[in-house]
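Notes from hallway chat w/ T.B., transcribed later so I don't forget. T.B. wanted the structure written out for a chain they're using in a teaching module, and asked if we could keep both sequence and structure tokens in one place. Agreed to drop them here.
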Amino acid sequence: MAYLLGIDIGTTGARALLVNERGTVVAGATEEYPLYTPQPLWAEQDPRDWWQATVNSVRRVLSAAGVRPDEIKGVGLTGQMHGVVLLDEKHEVLRPSLIWCDQRSQAQCDWITARVGAARLIELTCNPALTGFSAPKLLWVRDNEPAVFSKARKFLLPKDYIRFKLTGEFASEVSDASGTSLFDVRNRRWSDEVLQDLGIDRSMLPEVYESPVVSGRVSGEAAQLTGLPEGLPVVGGGGDQAAGAVGNGVVEPGIVSSTIGSSGVVFAFTEQPSLDPKGRMQTFCHAVPGKWHVMGVTQGAGLSLRWFRDHCGGPEMLVGMSAGIDPYELLTQEAARAEPGCEGLLFLPYLMGERAPHLDPNAKGVFFGLTGRHGRAHVIRAILEGVAYSLRDSMEIIQKEMNIPVTQVRASGGGGRSALWRQIQADIFQTEIVTINSTEGPSYGAALLAAVGAGFYHTVEEACHAAIRIVERTEPIAENMSLYEEYYGIYRDLYPALKPSFDKVTQIVTQH
């Protein structure tokens, strides 16, 4: 039997997943690492933590599976998008990575927009400049840490730093590169015009491949550290959303995914680049060669539930540790005790600012409608519902404004594993939610991409059709749909009413 390995550099940890050539999951292992928020709006991680977690998770999964190294035939990489890793001339990390949810670079976004021109930037890159994207972060370092930037010789995205550590190659692929604000998404290559306008040296950027294409091979040093065989091919892989879409079979028109990880994403396949003229939805290259996708992002989806777990979920953490139960499962069990709508308690999941549909780094998390009747169950359920309301914002734009067909919604991530969260999504989206035979998402998609690169399948579509099937369907409940429709209108009214206050709070915090 032959095996493929998918490696996912997530926001909370590195996931190594081993699947066989038929796409059956054999074993998986995750190693967590910290997230640092040294100032408001900042979010950083140490790339060296990613690499150590990768080494540990790969060794663990190989041990758990009991397979010989020579039975592994390919590696696919995926991970959080947009993060900025800077290496010096000796290829050492210069500073912690500014990751996707870092919001400090609004001034750089404004400068990019003025420098390139708002319309021209969207024409060249298919997207506006956003604080979540890479180029504004890169320029923030140039503007605020010139001594660091002067030493920078290479810029890599998170998963591509792991590629470098595995293979010694500086490479990326089209889906992840699409989220840098430096990439010509229509033509699937770096934009010379944008690089020139921003004064970024092309030599800093890696070569770009299509996602199933072999981009390097495991080096002798990496083989010793990980237990993988030297010379093992490593394919381009994909950004977490594109790889997750492959892992969910979102590789043909009409199929849309709703993924709740640290962020939340509504992802729709398109045959051609499809643009939101207001820039609320992002248009990127898909991990399927020659195809594209549109997605709307909620910055603080699962991150909101993790925030509650870390700061208010002490009982669940203790019980979970002693009983071997996932604390998130205990939290959702408690949330299920609250009625749909939480008796008027609403949550805005803007803990890290927001992308879709507001494009506002100053947006803040809010509990609205809190009364003396509300308890922990209401608060937890309000978080689950607030994330679903935010994802519906993206679904509305994709269907009703961009006219992209939606025939099926596939749930994945934490929102796909939780029966309660699936039901909430079905009720708020007012559509059936389905799940597939794998809940792994990005790491599974990365492994399928490796299977294509290793020659087990001719195309990504063929791999998905062979490996993926629907296993569960969740129908919306009519009375919940009508109740949520009323509350969704209130949810939609809250952001514009609070935006001036969000801006004022940000101003006060940053001044002091």
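Follow-up for T.B.: Residues 478-511 form the longest helix (34 residues). Might be a good example for the class.
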